[in-house]
Amino acid sequence: MLGYKRVKVDNFSDEVNPAQELILDWIYSSGNTNLSVDMMLSYLEQMQREDVIEVIHKAEGSNAPPPSVFISYNWGIQDSVKQLRDRIERAGFSCWMDIGQMGGGDSLYAKIDSGMRNAKV
């Protein structure tokens, strides 16, 4: 089943939303390629999750860019947050984070305000 061991599949089943947990895990680990989506659809069919399959098919037909994510954090955990940002971006979402988004002379509050207003998440 998508290369997952039975124990991992059982862990998904124990979650409140097993399909969502599976999708998130698969996206993070596979890089969200066409092959991975096809395999995901196959597994969701086995789980009889036509509702999730329908959402995926609708998203495939959409040309809308994925929502941008505004990341607010405490500087004390910056390294962990950068790792989270990298994972989100590998999943196909753009991120706004003060690191790499601001240059010398930029107005801190104006840049943050713009980042927040343009983010969807």
List descriptors.
mainly alpha, 3% strand, two-stranded parallel ribbon
Please tell me about this protein's structure.
The chain has helices at 6-14, 18-30, 34-46, 50-60, 78-90, 108-118; strands spanning 69-70, 95-96. By secondary structure, it is mainly alpha-helical. It has a two-stranded parallel sheet. The longest helix is centred in the N-terminal third of the chain and has 13 residues, at 18-30. It is elongated. The mean pLDDT is 78.
Strand arrangement, major sheet: 1-2
Task: Give the number of DSSP strands.
Answer: 2
Give the structural class.
mainly alpha
Number of helices: 6
Biggest sheet character: 2 strands, parallel
Q: How much of the sequence is in beta strands?
A: under 5%
Oligomeric assembly: single chain
Instruction: Estimate the helix proportion, in percent.
Output: 55-70%
Order of helices and strands: HHHHEHEH
Radius of gyration: 18 Å
Unreliable parts: none
